[in-house]
Write a structure and sequence with these properties.
alpha/beta, 12 strands, 20% strand, binds NADP nicotinamide-adenine-dinucleotide phosphate
Length: 287
């Protein structure tokens, strides 16, 4: 077996102290027998350009980007993967030969892996709350997966309309914008196979009001927010008897895909999931 050169990886964000990516990726390196190290770096947007340049100079192995840097890093990349280009945001940097910076986005595919086996997406109606970066990643991914219809419910109507236009250009699925209040309407929720919260609501005291009793019994609730306790969005859905999945599953799978992009090896998903469970998260769906 060839000896691997130890490399440093990391996540850039602001705030970033809460990130569980180091626990997850360091567990992955250990399980794969790789000598690498993954750290978190607090980088405000104004310092992003310098941070990325230093990463190239110091030959870091790869980086993740989190809030609020996923869009700001796009113009700093030498190339984007087709997926990152379509989403318009980057959560993973892969450093190629001669310091070439390739921006990838594993959030959308990570979401699909997270829900795989829990919901049939082909032809389905997906209701998505939020129109920010992660909503764009999820909407793009489910459109690729062949859903029939997507409803984007957002607080700021113009942002929902912008996402609808972006998705409509792909011609992959029928898309409509709606106000957040539509999440209380049975005509919107009645045939939804999947309802996704892609807003930070639930992190604080406020929650997203969804009329879960208007959904089918088989409807799956997915919150991108995660925590050591059931999120308010998932707790409400579970109370109505709906199956739930919080953001820990997407965190796991987007991280596994980043690991694979950096190392060219299959990610040790079981070890990564164990690291998240050790931190109190539940990266699996409720039954
Ligand atoms: N599990 C994972 O792996 C994962 C991955 C990515 C993101 N996330 C989580 O997903 C959430 C969204 O992230 P993002 O990157 O998409 O953020 P973003 O680009 O800032 O978008 C935030 C979205 O939430 C809405 N929003 C924010 N505060 C709100 C409020 N008080 N009431 C109603 N709507 C509100 C915004 O609506 P307006 O357009 O009206 O402002 C916007 O649609 C965050 O909690 C993030 O941690 C999780």
């Amino acid at each position: 077996v060839r000896n691997e050169r130890a490399q440093v990886f990391g996540v850039l964000g602001d705030p970033v102290d809460h990130s569980l990516s180091p626990a997850m990726q360091n567990a992955a390196f250990a399980a794969a027998g790789l000598p690498h190290l993954y750290l978190r770096y607090r980088v405000p947007p104004a310092e992003l350009r310098a941070a990325v340049r230093e990463a190239v100079v110091l030959r870091l192995g790869g980086l993740n980007l989190t809030v609020p840097l996923k869009e700001a890093v796009v113009p700093l990349c030498d190339a984007l993967t087709p997926e990152a280009a379509r989403i318009g945001a980057v959560n993973t940097l892969v450093f190629g030969a001669a310091g070439r910076i390739v921006g990838d986005n594993t959030d959308g595919r990570g979401f699909l892996r997270a829900v795989a086996g829990h919901v049939r997406l082909a032809g389905a109606h997906v209701v998505l709350a939020g129109a920010g970066g992660s909503a764009r990643a999820v909407a793009t991914a489910v459109a690729d997966a062949g859903v029939g219809r997507i409803t984007i419910a957002n607080r700021t109507p113009a942002r929902a309309e912008a996402l609808v236009e972006r998705l409509a250009r792909t011609g992959l699925a029928a898309v409509a914008a709606a106000p957040l209040g539509a999440l209380a309407r049975s005509d919107v929720l009645g045939d939804a196979a999947l309802v996704v919260n892609a807003t930070p609501l639930g992190l604080g005291a406020r929650r997203l009001g969804v009329r879960w009793d208007a959904t089918q019994r088989t409807c799956l609730a997915v919150d991108l927010v995660y925590g050591t306790r059931p999120t308010p969005f998932c707790a409400d859905a579970a109370r109505a008897g709906r199956r739930t999945l919080d953001g820990a599953a997407m965190l796991l799978h987007q991280g596994a895909l980043a690991f694979e992009a950096w190392t060219g090896r299959r990610a040790p998903r079981a070890a990564m999931a164990a690291a998240l469970r050790a931190a109190g998260l539940r990266p699996e769906a409720s039954r």
